[in-house]
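Kindly inspect this one:
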Amino acid sequence: MSQRRRFWVSVVVCGFLAGYPAFPAFAGEGGHVQETVKHAKEGIGHAKEAIQHLEEAVKSSNDPHAKEALDHAKESLKHAEESLAHAEQAHQHKPKGKTK
């Protein structure tokens, strides 16, 4: 894989991963939260697979930018997993009283 292609794959994966932490914040109530959590889990699974491919590409590269992109992708995945955990906790915690 050429350096240019590795670079663009890294950019796309990092952009893809960076978007996932925001999804639970816009979910809403009820079924929308469940659906958002489901999609976030699917996205995290895809991100993990993408990181595996990036790791394989970095092994054959001496480009420090590719390694830095991989580190950023891993950090973004970590934040996405934390965000998903918070969304799941928020969904399980139901308000007791009627809110206005």
The chain has one domain: 3-92. The longest helix spans residues 31-59. DSSP finds three helices and no strands in the chain.
